[in-house]
Amino acid sequence: MLLFMAKKRKYYVVWHGVEPGIYDQWDKCKAQIAGFPGAKYKSFKSLSEAEDAFASGPDAAMFKTRAKKKRKPSYHEFLDEIVTPSMCVDAACSGNPGVVEYQGVDTETKDVFFRIGPLKKGTNNIGEFLALIHALAYLQGINDHSLPIYSDSRTALSWYRNKKVKTTFFDKHKNPELRKLLNRAIEWMKSNNPKNPILKWDTEKWGEIPADFGRK
């Protein structure tokens, strides 16, 4: 005995055609668009999707389809141009300001070198900067002066490059633990001259940095 799978039903939206509307059969849809100049139509898997698309218009529906099909890049595809072995750092902040944590991981394997937090109330910029300084101090502590460090934060890289932290966070918020960590990081930064290359992670091209906490 042969078993046949039931064909999934589709709904066809005709925006520009003989009679615009929603059709549940291809032949009916085809009759509205065949030979019609500039016909615009599209199929959907459910009636609710078709109704939303018909109401929003063809431009919105087509844009939504293109956005859905756009695949996010993965850094695994670019390991030939990403410097490895290396460490990458990142921070996560639940709200900004909010609970903050940061970490440093192996760029290829995502093995964790260190993870700090959660720390109550901070900013993502402070977390990114602390992650960078922690990475440099960590590598100095194990006598590794050559491993590159990636960060996706322009602000953290700028603070380190200029040897100056610009934040008004503590003008409005009290967090002695975070202030202590930040002051210690600034002091370490000004007192040391690490040789590890510090590199900017190209998020737009490579995708999320491996140290990302995955909470976006």
Quick recap:
By secondary structure, the protein is of the alpha/beta class. It is built from 8 helices and 8 strands. The longest helix is centred in the middle third of the chain and has 18 residues, at 124-141.
Secondary-structure-based class equals alpha/beta
Low-confidence stretches: 1-6
* Straight-line N-to-C gap: 51 Å
> How much helix, percentage-wise, in residues?
25-40%
**Major sheet size, sense and barrel closure:** 5 strands, mixed
Overall pLDDT metric: 89
Quaternary state of the chains: single chain
Number of strands: 8
Q: What's the arrangement of strands in the largest beta sheet?
A: 6-5-4-7-8
Kindly provide the radius of gyration, computed on alpha-carbon positions and rounded to a whole number of angstroms: 26 Å
Q: Judging from the principal axes of the Cα atoms, what is the shape?
A: elongated
Percent of residues in β-strands? 15-25%
What is the chain-wise order of helices and strands? EEHEHHEEEHEHHHEH
Count, helices: 8
